[in-house]
């Protein structure tokens, strides 16, 4: 079956996550069948049936998952012949919506009206859910129950043809917001890693579920709480800050209570990242996933001084990570990118013993939307931010 994945605000991160989750670097036959539909949609063909409702809860970078039914011309008659046989209205009102992803303009009103006419002629009370945009947001899809009792029909531009599909699930935005803003311990002054980005980083690490995951700059515990929700069993957190350690404990207890998660082992300690090997066994950690201190978040910043201090800190930390990381383990780490005077300034810690891993399989790199830096990393941020995030994946060299 062929599935579509509507990508999040950072297509490169979204594709990297999907490639990691599906193992596309190793499964060349799947990578050959994968591709893009514009800059917002990723296509994947697989013999296995995807449980979209379960999968999307584990993906931080995917907004919608759906299935492709067929390929069609752009005429209303051709599209109707594919869409209407697959509509399955039950009792009560049936809501439906239309989304078009593509670079050309497509006037959806005639198609929507014909679908509405088709349903009403068969005695179905229906409502066409519309938006100002040509695509419905995940919020609109969820609030109008288009994946549970209704239907979001998705049209994807493919040259002069259209792929016709249907959305199966959308990102659980309410739950993600609750995990972000509802947790008992937050530290806005130090900066908060979004749960969605934490999910992506964990998926990029590709650690076994029974492997050991370590966050040596655990802060308020976002990576550890998300790892527990994703089913990882052996978690270690460390931070030099007493407050961070207490915040992590509070948030882990909250996650455990709210989501009834009990089958994991957690160790948290007040430990400096450059002294980890005193408390963590050699070669015992399968993945190190972390966002360290990124420098001052408010007020004027002396960028050169901050870069020098962080480069020294990260270099020492990486040296320590090498002692405790398993031979086939990965590091997924955030490095700061400073924006000033219309240019971006990066840091380059000493990576002795490590090399940067490009998370996009070779067959999927030829796309303008999948933008990586010159050193094969991905930048995550939004306009107006002084400090952006560089997502760096490291493996032993």
Structural commentary:
There is one protein chain. Strand 7 (151-158) and strand 8 (161-170) form a beta hairpin. This protein folds into 2 domains: 2-171, VC0802-like, CATH 3.30.2130.30; 174-396, Rossmann fold, CATH 3.40.50.150. The longest helix has 22 residues, at 303-324. Strands 9, 10, 11, 12, 13, 14, 15, 16 and 17 form a 9-stranded mixed sheet that branches. The chain is α/β, with parallel strands linked by helices and 397 residues long. It is built from 11 helices and 17 strands. 29% of the residues lie in helices and 28% in strands. The chain has helices spanning 11-22, 28-33, 52-55, 76-83, 109-121, 138-143, 173-181, 195-205, 222-229, 242-258, 303-324; strands at residues 2-7, 35-37, 41-45, 62-72, 94-101, 126-129, 151-158, 161-170, 212-215, 234-238, 265-269, 285-290, 325-340, 343-345, 354-356, 378-380, 387-396. The model has no long low-confidence stretch (mean pLDDT 92).
Can you describe this structure in just a few lines?
By secondary structure, the protein is of the alpha/beta class.
- How many beta-strand segments? 17
State the CATH class of the largest domain: Alpha Beta
In terms of DSSP E residues, the strand content is 25-35%
Distance between the termini: 38 Å
Shape: elongated
Quote the average pLDDT.
92
CATH architecture of the largest domain: 3-Layer(aba) Sandwich
Helix percentage:
25-40%
Name of the CATH superfamily of the largest domain: Vaccinia Virus protein VP39
* Oligomeric state as shown: single chain
Order of helices and strands: EHHEEHEHEHEHEEHHEHEHEEHEEEEE
* Number of separate helices: 11
């Amino acid at each position: 079956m062929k599935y579509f994945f509507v990508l999040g605000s950072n297509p490169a991160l979204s594709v990297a996550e999907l490639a990691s989750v599906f193992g596309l670097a190793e499964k060349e036959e799947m990578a050959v069948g994968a591709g893009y539909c514009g800059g917002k949609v990723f296509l994947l063909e697989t013999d296995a049936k995807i449980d979209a409702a379960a999968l999307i809860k584990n993906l931080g970078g995917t907004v919608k998952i759906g299935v492709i039914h067929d390929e069609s011309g752009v005429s209303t008659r051709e599209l109707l012949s594919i869409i209407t046989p697959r509509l399955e209205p039950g009792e009560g009102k049936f809501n439906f919506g239309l989304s078009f992803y593509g670079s050309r303009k497509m006037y959806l009103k005639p198609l929507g009206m014909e679908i509405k006419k088709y349903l009403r002629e068969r005695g179905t009370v229906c409502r066409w859910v519309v938006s100002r945009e040509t695509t419905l947001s995940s919020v609109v899809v969820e609030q109008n129950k288009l994946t549970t009792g209704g239907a979001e029909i998705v049209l994807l531009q493919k040259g002069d043809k259209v792929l016709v599909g249907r959305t199966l699930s959308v990102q659980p935005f309410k739950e993600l917001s609750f995990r972000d803003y509802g947790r008992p311990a937050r530290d806005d002054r130090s900066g908060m890693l979004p749960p969605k980005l934490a999910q992506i980083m964990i998926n990029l690490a590709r650690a076994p579920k029974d492997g050991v995951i370590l966050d040596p700059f655990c802060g308020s515990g976002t990576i550890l709480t998300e790892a527990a929700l994703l089913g990882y069993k052996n978690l270690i957190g460390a931070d030099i800050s007493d407050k961070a350690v207490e915040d992590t404990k509070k948030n882990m207890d909250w996650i455990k209570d709210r989501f009834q998660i009990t089958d994991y082992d957690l160790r948290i300690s007040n430990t400096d990242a450059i002294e980890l090997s005193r408390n963590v066994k050699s070669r015992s950690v399968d993945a190190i996933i972390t966002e360290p201190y990124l420098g001052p978040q408010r007020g004027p910043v002396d960028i050169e001084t901050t870069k020098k201090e962080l480069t020294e800190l990260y270099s020492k930390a990486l040296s320590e990570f090498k002692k405790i990381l398993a031979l086939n383990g990965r590091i997924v780490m955030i490095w700061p990118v400073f924006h000033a005077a219309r240019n971006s300034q990066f840091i380059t810690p000493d990576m002795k013993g490590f090399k940067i891993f490009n998370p996009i399989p070779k067959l999927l790199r030829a796309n303008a939307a999948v933008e990586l830096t010159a050193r094969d990393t991905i930048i995550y941020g939004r306009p107006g931010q002084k400090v952006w995030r560089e997502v760096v994946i490291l493996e032993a060299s």
